[in-house]
Amino acid sequence: MKRLALILISAATLADGVSAQRLQVAGNQNRSFVKVDADVVAITHVRVIDGTGAPARADQTLILRDGNIAAMGPAASTAVPERATVIDGAGKSVMPGFVMLHEHLYYPTGPGVYGQLGASFVRLYLAGGVTTMRTAGNTNGFMDFALARGTEAGTTVGPAIDATAPYLNGPQNMLQMYALKDAGDATKMVNYWADAGATSFKAYMQITRAELAAAIAAAHARGLKVTGHLCSVTLGEAADLGIDDLEHGFAAATDFFPNKQPDVCPGQLQGQQSVIAADINGDAVKALIKKLVDKKVALTSTLTVFETFTPGRPVPPGLDVLLPELKAQFDAAYQRVASSQTSVYKQLFPKMMALEFAFAKAGGLLVAGTDPTGSGGVIPGYANQRQIELLVEEGFTPLEAIKIATWNGAKYLGRETRIGSIAVGKQADLVLVSGDPSTSIGDVRNVDTVFRRGVGFDPVKLIDSVKGKVGLW
């Protein structure tokens, strides 16, 4: 019967019509991070948290074959193939690899300047359990695309990368950001960067409605999606124009700003104050949430970056990977925040949580990311785990939070048939952790092995390779 079950499972896998191949990791340094690399891998006696929100299943066995999940079932009745590499999962849990949608390959290194840290960041993201990520904004041009090609080919160790083009924005003061001239220029920018390898686009705070509409039309014509961190355009206006996603939940909304002028950003602080003042049970908030849900606009939660601005919050994890100078820079910023008596974030942070939660409970697609910007302290990998913890603080159950960070992200990307949950025939992108995150969400930090297309990577070795040096590359 066991043999028959495996035959049926194999047939189902073939019937899927799409299958991954096991990642071929190239280069001696890259190979040094590999912990498990075999044609067939069996993870036995493990707890399965499948990413769909379903209850965890205890004492399961997963069979990985050639980069895919070939079999799964109770350990007592699931055969382990001969010559399989066996991993004892007793006391451990396996989850889908995290699919995170507001990540960057840069980090604040000076006033108004971002250092391009993609080579070290992709290792940290993978070490933290991220197997697919979207770079929600690009300040360098081509590095993100090159790293996306490298992680897919196995010449670079890291997650699969949905690489966003440089920002689409109007006139502003950022040293590393282009200013669109008009709607025609927005169309040209989208087509140029799509040709160069971009697989998504992000609109920013000073874009006009005409420019945003042109960008969305051009991106959609190429089968690509547009997200936005907006201000001059309201969330409701962007939804009417067909935007696919909105960043930072409702924190950047200017929909509630009194006498909002078309195509004018009233200022970040003023916009935030209007969000704080908005009645969560009022008609304006309910109408906006309904519009976003009806138009199938996703929201990306990025609680981690806002936590670093909020007095009274804990020191973020992972700071010891930074160059000493960057760590000192953030430590000073953290102390300034801690001593602030007038910070808007004391009210904005809980209001953001409440609005995001209401959106999700109304049927909206909430996805997750971390946004390593601001004054620093948002460390790839570590922050992704922290984001999941914060979703639980927001009000979601651990299983719901894990679903937001896995299946929801995959659904937004249109890849939910291959990634984002654990099922027979799906790609073997997995996170093996010690403990039980389905009941104790802090266990997401206890990463033992991260599987990317069936190859298991050692998180300790990945982190050690960049520790104390993040900021150099």
Report on this model:
The model is unreliable at about 1-15 (pLDDT under 50). The strands form four sheets. Strands 1, 2, 3, 4, 5, 6, 17, 18 and 19 form a nine-stranded mixed sheet that branches. The chain has a five-stranded parallel sheet with strand order 12-13-14-15-16. The chain is globular, with a radius of gyration of 22 Å. Helix content is about 35%, strand content about 20%. It folds into two domains: about 1-95 and about 420-460, Urease, subunit C, domain 1; about 100-415, Alpha-Beta Barrel (TIM Barrel). The chain starts with a helix and ends in a 9-residue tail after the last helix. β12, α6 and β13 (about 225-230) form a beta-alpha-beta unit. With about 475 residues, it is of the alpha/beta class. The chain contains 15 helices and 19 strands. The relative contact order is 0.17.
